[in-house]
Structure formats: C-alpha cells, structure tokens
Amino acid sequence: MVALSECKDSNKISTDFPNNYIWDLTFFDKRVSITVIEHINEAHKWAEEAHSEGLTIGFVPTMGALHAGHRSLIELALEQCDRVIASIYVNPTQFNNPDDLKKYPRTPEADLLLLERSGCHAVFCPSTEELYTSGELPSQWDYGTLSHSLEGYFRPGHFNGVLTIVKKLFLAVTPDKAFFGEKDFQQLALIRRMTIDEQLPIEIIAAPTIRESDGLAMSSRNMRLNPEERTIALNISRILLAAHRNGRSKTPSELLQNATEALSEVKNLRTEYCALVLASNLQPVKVWPKEPCVLLVAAFVGDIRLIDNVIIS
Predict the structure, then answer these.
(1) Per-residue model confidence as pLDDT tens digits over 97-154
(2) pLDDT, tens only, 5-31
(3) CATH superfamily ID and name for 220-312
(4) What DSSP letter does each residue of 273-287 carry, written as one string?
(5) Which residues contact 107 (CB under 8 A, 6 or more apart)?
(6) CA torsion angle for 210, 214, 217, 222 (degrees, to 10)?
(7) Of the listed 44, 51, 70, 148, which one is catalytic?
(8) Catalytic status, residue 70
(9) Helices 158-173 + 185-197 axis angle, to 10
(10) First-last CA distance in the chain
(11) 8 Å CB contact between 269 and 308
C-alpha cells in the first residue's frame, strides 16, 4: 500500500488478459494524497485498520474511464461512510465480445485525479494475476430470469464474469456498503441477489442514473462516440424520458409499443431490446402492478453498445 506520489512501478500486465492499465504515476506530484492499493493483503490491512477504529467503509467498484456519474457515487459514499475506497479494474471475464474489451476506454491518470479530487480515500488497482489464477474461469450463477433475460440473453456469460469479479472485490475490500448506479439496472439486481445468497455482510446502495445536460445517460462508452453518433444516441434517452413522462397514463403494451416504434424510426440506431419489466424480478409487465416497473433499452450506434432505462412508478 503506497501513497500515489510514492508509487514507482505499477506496470503489471497480465499475460492471460493483457488489458490492465499501464500506470504512469509520474504524472502526479506530491500534492496528490490518495492511497493506491495493488494487492489483496494490502486491501485487507487497510480495511482492518479502518474497522478497528470503528469506521465504516464505503466501496465504489469501477472499470475506470471515470465520469461525473462515478463521482456522484463517491460523494454518496462519503455522505454515508467514514472511509471510501474505489476500485479500478477492467474485468476481462465479463466481456463476451473481445473487440469490446480491446476498445474499452482507459484513462488511468485522469481516473486517479478524479478520485483524489472527489475525496476518495483509497483506490484498489489490482492486476489480473492478483485476482485470477492462471486459466481460472468465472463462477456460474443462475438466478433464472434475472440471469438469462435481456443483458443475460444478448451477452451470454457476461453476468457470470460480473458477479465473479464483484465477489472477489467484496472479499478483498470487505466494505460495509457498496454503491452502484441504476443505469446498469439488471446488474444491480443480480449483485443484490448474489450478496444475499453468499451471505456477505454488505449493504448494496443504488444511486439514480446521472445524465449529461442533454439527457444522455453518462457512460464510459460515451467517449467513443463521435459528434454524429452522439446525436443519434441522444434519441435513446429522449424516447425513454418521454415514456417516463407518460408513465401509467398509457397501458403497458401501449407504452412499450410507442417506445419500440420510436426507436425503430431512428436512422442508424439498431435496437437490441426494448423491454418493460417489473423492477423486482424483470418479468414482463402485462398490467400495471402496485410495484415499480422499469423500461430498459440496449441499442447500437455503429459498433458502440449503449444501455439506458427509466423507472415507471
């Protein structure tokens, strides 16, 4: 465990999954004080010291390419916990598309600076060798519709990788609370379920989707959009937010049909799915229930896959 300004050599790249950051910490000077943790035993020590002082720990897992949405999670964690630690790790086992993994944006220096300026106390930046044994495959998780519908259907194996890495990070950091954005709604539901089933003493906190000033849901993938593609992508949030305004004034089938047709009319936008489901279990909505529902969309702009959703209360 080292202070950022003291870290000399973090250039650890996995031979199995050559996707980790190449850390060039000479970018920073001694004014930067965030603690960088590279090893699991150091993460344990950091957490044990905080807990021994009676302090609570909030955890924000990330894959880097940080933006204001991540900063909002850090700020929420700081409101609720005494110490906050983030992680930066691009997890290869959750990418079912190798090209998507290769193109995933990596901005390590900017990421660490954002965390430090947000007040985050520490960041866990492990190598793949630290988290996975050679040849290790992700664990298998089957939570029925939660696992296999929507993202689970179109990205086979994705959630096995997500839950595997989240559990590994939870066990390394041992937080009291972990913070996730609602933009990844299905992922959030699965992490809640896994945490309960594995009897991990961690409270999962959901935070609302943070949007750009024009309505686009904040995502690390947005930085890959050129101006023309961004204009196309804005239609996703426009259509979803219109559905949110209409709410339950329409029947579920009308609301879904209107959104689906509107998406299909957008030139150069390829919709993968548009679904209206119960927020609790992702079952399709036929009639309006008492509980909240969620309208979810996944769509491609060029080769960039974007997801977004709105809650229909």
Answers:
(1) 888 888 888 888 899 999 999 999 999 999 999 999 999 999 999 999 999 999 999 9
(2) 333 333 332 334 444 444 444 444 444
(3) Pantoate-beta-alanine ligase, C-terminal domain (3.30.1300.10)
(4) EEEEEETTT-PBPSS
(5) 64, 65, 66
(6) -120
(7) 70
(8) yes
(9) 60
(10) 45
(11) no
